Structures are given as C-alpha cells and as structure tokens.
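Here is a typical sample entry:
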Amino acid sequence: MIKYALACDAAHEFEGWFGSSDDFDSQLARGLVACPICDTKAVAKQIMAPAVAGTKRDAPDLPAPMRAMMMEAMGRVRKHVEENFDDVGDTFAVEARAIHEGRSEDRGIYGEATPAEIKALAEDGVQVAPMPPAAPKKSDVN
C-alpha cells in the first residue's frame, strides 16, 4: 500500500491509500478519486517526504487523553454502524455491488470482505470504508 497526500483544485487537502502508484493513476484517470469535502474529481498528488521504516520510533505516542478520545470516537462510530446498518456478513462485497448497481435496496451495510474484493469494489467506484476495530475486552488487556 502507498499513501499519497492529495489536494483538490479548491485547496482541500486529504490523503488516499492505494495498492500502488499505478492504482492511483488508473483510478484518477477513471474518475474514481474525488475530494471528500467538495466531491470534485480535480485532484492531484502533493509533495511529501517518503516514510522510511526504521528500528527506532521517530514520533512519540499520542498523549493518553488524545488516544482515549480517539478510541471513544471510534467506538461510537462502530456502535452506530452496528445499531443502524444491516450486517450482511461475508456477502458484503456481493451486496455492496448490488446496492451500487441498483439491484438491491439502497441502505447502509457492514460485513466482511477479502482485500481482493475490497480492491475490486474500489476500482469499480463502490465506496467502502473499514469498520473501526472493536474495543479489546477487559479480560484480554494486561
């Protein structure tokens, strides 16, 4: 996976993850990359420093209050999805495509899919996003 810093022609900055540089170029050419703020397809890569893996951590951990706040927010998002969307289990990719193509009722869904299924959905313009992870059980935490 490769992460690009992106910006639209309205100067909205955001990032995108792609399987490769060719994946980005292909999705951009097919109009599948859009600004999440204004939905324009006039998007370009920004200059960014490469991330080089090393043995030492260069960035400190987030402060505990900020980490707790982020974990709480992710938990709320997950809870909202679980309470308001349909769990379609391992048929997620099939159902997401059917909704996208108008063959199934338009509704929020969640479930499981393989990385290959997610890649194929994204390449076809089906909008998908990962579900925030479930909070660890207190019995599983040291």
